[in-house]
Fold:
Amino acid sequence: MRTYISALFLVVVSIHAQTPSFPDCKTGPLAQFPICDASLPSHQRAADLVGRMTTAEKITQLVTTAAAVPRLGLPKFEWWSEALHGVAYSPGVNFGGDLPSATSFPMPINLGASFNLSLVHEIAGTISTEARAFNNEGRAGLVFFTPNININRDPRWGRGQETTGEDPVLTSQYVYALINGLQRGEDERYLKIAADCKHYAAYDLENWNGTDRYHFDAIVSDQDLLETYMPPFETCIRDAKVASIMCSYNAVNGVPSCANQFILQTIARDSYHLDGFVVSDCGAVSTIMDTHNYTHTVEDTVAVALHAGTDLNCGDFYSKHTQEALDKKTIVEGDIDRAVERTFNVLVRLGYFDPPEIQPYRQLNKNDVDTDHARQLALAAAQESIVLLKNTNKALPLTLNQLQNKKIALIGPTADNGAIMQGNYYGHAPFLIDPLAGFNTVTQGYSVNVSFAHGCPISDNDQSGFSAAIELAKSADIVFFFGGINQTIEAEAHDRTSIALPDIQLNLLQQLEKVVRSPLHVVIMSGGGLDLSYIRDSSQCASLTWMGYAGQAGGLAVASVIFGLYNPGGRLPITFYPASYVDAVSMFDMQMRPSPKNPGRTYKFYTGKAVYQFGDGLSYTTLSYTWYNDTIETVLPIRSLMKNNYDETKVLVESYRVNVTNTGDILGDDSVLAFVVPPQVSMTGQTPPIKQLFGFARVRLDPHQTTQVFFPLNVRSLLTVARDGSKWLEPGSYKILIGKQHMHTIHLQGKPARWS
Structure:
């Protein structure tokens, strides 16, 4: 059920944009050379161009703001553009002229909550279309530093909102869909845009307890690297074939990421087969020396970064010091050639040197930006991402026909603030529909009084708005409290110290409970998890809805859910921990499994009682799962699964079919999650996950409709990863859960066998 309301869609006025700049391969200085021969392989063309450059010219191409080379007809090129959830402010992006705005989709944490890969792919395709249109008008680059595919390990992390959540399987499947949508379109010859998987590797700390990301050394076991931190990058590089990756600020086991040959060369290039370039996070080459103290001279710093495989420096360290490294003989010219060839190879694959008339992507323009379809897609994505966590006595949805002459009060700091909905890494949206505007739009034409009081700020102790909010609540028939957090609390460069709902909001909420005529409804904006146990347990709170950071149409989306125009089907992609969690484990502790100093991380290993669990979410209808397979138990010898190719993703154990039925009377979505529960006693002395996701599907069902979903189970989902990184098949019973329902059991028999 997608509801598209056009009343608040703004009309934009077009004015003339800048002129795009590309090399002239028809009449320019390079026209007769192999770089301009579209019939040749991209690597050969790039090598030809680099071979025609002087050393000084090549050095200017080692940084993200690459200088023009007039002698060769190369224009200035800015490598750094952003498009996390839409074309975004960045050095390479300029809003204005014919392109004053770009579609602002929900944040990635919301897309994780949708559990809808086709939606992700469609959004990515729309973003890349708009990005190309911006590029063709001279207002964006061709390389976009997105997505952030780090695992959301700790609820305090300020950038968890940029990720799809805490699960490696969800993140891996998300990144596959996203990269294909960003990089590939109808023209198979050329990349649509070049994406960049970041931050590689084990990056998930900003600034906590006196240590910032520039100084942090992530001590990570081989077990956690293989099981948790690396799978999304493996999928991004090996399977989705991303054009670039970004090495992170932090060190990994004592070696700064941008100087780490093991992760950049051995893993990314040799094992995952990266065919593209590595760019540093901005300033991360200089931090090798300045904050990690891994090197002592600028020439050695250039050398370790280039030798590790950091091809492009976001910053100016390479442009300032590479000649010095050559002079001091810590590098040779071939090191520079290799780096520049890798970056220009990607530009060739983007069609940068080829005639525009043979490239469909070069024909995209302002008419392909902020289309009706894009607006509808942004609204649909926001709707699909909303998670209903509590709904006592079916308090929601509200029925418009039963609200004649009723007064609805919206109270709280996020009710009228559309900017919060964009999260971070956003651009100039064509419009922002906050919840207050969304409520007014949905109730238009009905005799419903929608009133608003700010009540309190997000986090400081100003109670000056309490009295007006309380008076409004007294006079209202239905009261909604809109709270949560924003970029002053969770942000890049800023981790949280508390995951509690800010005291000022809880105080106001408790006072509202005393005066309302009926139990409160609560809506929370946030990227990271919050301890919402008070709201969960309070008899004076009838419903609780998490809307994340839902993008330009977020307020309309949440209003459509609340009034029953859309039936929520989102599920939490993260664990909501109790507030005490922050006292139980240090952010510096990268270990996922529980220990005497760590209660365990994420739903896979957390041993405490969560406020809300990964995968939680309610619907307005009722849904049932039934087993379609022949048996409820399978016995397999371990030896029957051992294969010579050792590719655990290609060895199929079972293919499950599950019937999903809407047993209620309302059209609705269901996010169907499939988990495997391994034996909890390991014969090799390991701590297995409590359970782990191996598949998911989003389905839409009419009342009383049944559909079938398929979940392939491969060997990877049954492997136990040891501390040393070895992988084992262990005997025992493996339970298959669909949602929380036990559907099937696999009994593996035999002795433990090492897979790899």
